[in-house]
């Protein structure tokens, strides 16, 4: 009981003084050393974000989602199509919304690119690079991440 109280106090301090979420639900648990782009990330209820994760972009995370440690959700890339201007000075492309629906588990070290949606009930394996949408109830992994099977049996037809 004391441990739960300490975790809640620590999380309240993190969300009050360090991380500025656009919105957040109940029972949010955060690891250490996160980067959260201020006022751009929304999280639902019962979300866990592991240590050293990086959340940069227009991101919405549903209820009951687990992000393991070192997960990166990245915003738009730097523009590289402006001749004569160093890439670092060309600015960034427009952020597309990135959605992680409810009951999703993202494995350690996964990178999720700008504008991707991960469907309800999906699992993304550790070390994956997600460049395209993942349908609901899928298990996906790899670089780039590909759906290898579904979590639930297909309903009878």
What does this structure look like?
This protein has 157 residues and is mainly beta. 11% of the residues lie in helices and 28% in strands. It contains one helix and 17 strands. It has one helix spanning 2-18, and strands at 23-24, 29-30, 35-36, 41-43, 48-49, 54-55, 59-61, 66-67, 72-73, 98-100, 105-106, 111-112, 117-118, 123-124, 129-130, 138-142, 145-150. The protein has a seven-stranded mixed sheet. A hairpin with a 2-residue loop joins strand 16 (138-142) and strand 17 (145-150). The longest helix has 17 residues, at 2-18. The chain is flat, with a radius of gyration of 17 Å. It starts with a helix and ends in a 7-residue tail after the last strand.
Short description:
The chain has 157 residues and is mostly beta strands. It contains one helix and 17 strands. A seven-stranded mixed beta sheet has the order 2-5-8-11-14-16-17. Strands 1-4-7-10-13 form a five-stranded parallel beta sheet, with no helix packed on it. It has a five-stranded parallel beta sheet with strand order 3-6-9-12-15, with no helix packed on it.
The unreliable regions are: none
Structural class: mainly beta
The total count of helices amounts to 1
Largest sheet: 7 strands, mixed
Which H/E pattern describes the elements?
HEEEEEEEEEEEEEEEEE
List the helices and strands and how they pair.
Layout: H1 2-18, E1 23-24, E2 29-30, E3 35-36, E4 41-43, E5 48-49, E6 54-55, E7 59-61, E8 66-67, E9 72-73, E10 98-100, E11 105-106, E12 111-112, E13 117-118, E14 123-124, E15 129-130, E16 138-142, E17 145-150
Parallel strand pairs: 1-4, 2-5, 3-6, 4-7, 5-8, 6-9, 7-10, 8-11, 9-12, 10-13, 11-14, 12-15, 14-16
Antiparallel strand pairs: 16-17
